[in-house]
Write a structure and sequence with these properties.
The chain is of the alpha/beta class.
């Protein structure tokens, strides 16, 4: 539920987060954009341990000292640096259009800035980037995986053009189509980052999303909430209208605040358990937080 304080817009309410290109570059510059290490092994830059020799291994990496000491063949391994694809998935359902009185922009605008910044960081490291949306209006379209400066422009253009819309709460096929598209496009070692408020998604959505962490993928879910959704600052009689669905509730804010905050905490806890169970990561944030801090938190969790 979201307070009906302003009409729902078809375009993103950018607020002070526009222009997207400039904001994304500022955020990217504030985040350490170092190379990441691959889980793959081979001849590379840093020693990565030993393993038993297997016929066909490169004889240059045999450890002769181990042979003399233990009378068995072992091979030295090295960690190599490699490119990993970044797959961005942005929730563009209707609830992401909300912007409270304390927010710099709508939730979708905030997610777009953070996502574009991550794309710029990945592309600067030579990693390919793709973008897809969960929900959204007719103008919402995926950006296939690619590299280079032109890809950053394509990602930004798609984020600027997306129109928040669709009711994700009852639309399981919409969720499944988006997740299956990401799963098909991402291979072992890919990094999948989902930006969503996690509100009004279909039943079982947490387990469906968590499944993206299988087959060697790295999954980071960034729960993006408006400050008003976090602490429910309203007082007195309020009329709440759901941005997804047709529900309207009139209640006393002071009476329901504690129950509301507890329900939001339970929502986050359920998602965290489902994601961590599959070795994914959950980042909780509000749009009042610095986008630099959010992007940095994501980068730190995928290293």
């Amino acid at each position: 539920m979201t307070p009906a304080l302003r009409p729902l817009r078809h375009a993103i309410d950018w607020g002070v987060l526009a222009p997207l290109r400039l904001r994304a570059r500022e955020v990217a510059e504030g985040v350490y954009a170092g190379a990441h290490r691959s889980a793959r092994r081979g001849a590379g830059v840093e020693f990565g341990g030993y393993r038993e020799y297997v016929p066909g291994d490169d004889l240059r990496w045999l450890d002769r000292r181990s042979l003399l000491r233990h009378e068995r063949l072992v091979v030295r391994q090295f960690e190599t640096e490699t490119d990993r694809a970044l797959c961005l998935l942005v929730d563009a359902s209707a609830s992401m259009a909300f912007r409270g009185s304390r927010a710099p922009g709508a939730k979708l605008a905030f997610a777009s800035v953070c996502g574009a910044a991550l794309a710029r960081i990945a592309l600067a490291s030579g990693d390919p980037v793709s973008l897809d949306f969960l929900g959204g209006g007719a103008r919402s379209g995926p950006v296939p995986r690619s590299v280079g400066h032109e890809q950053f422009e394509r990602v930004v253009a798609a984020l600027e053009a997306v129109e928040p819309g669709d009711d994700a709460s009852m639309d399981v096929p919409t969720l499944d189509r988006a997740l299956q598209s990401v799963a098909r496009a991402s291979r072992r070692g890919a990094i999948v980052v989902l930006f969503s408020d996690l509100v009004d998604l279909p039943e079982g959505a947490a387990d469906r999303v968590a499944a993206l962490a299988s087959r060697g993928r790295v999954l980071v879910v960034v729960q993006t909430l408006d400050p008003d959704e976090v602490d429910f600052p309203y007082t007195g009689h309020v009329r709440l209208r759901a941005l997804e669905g047709s529900a309207v509730v009139e209640t006393d804010a002071d009476t329901v605040r504690d129950r509301y905050v507890a329900a939001m905490r339970e929502l986050s806890r359920g998602w965290r358990e489902a994601i961590v169970r599959r070795r994914g990561r959950l980042v909780e944030t509000s749009t009042a937080r610095s986008p630099v801090d959010v992007a940095r938190a994501v980068v730190e969790r995928i290293r």
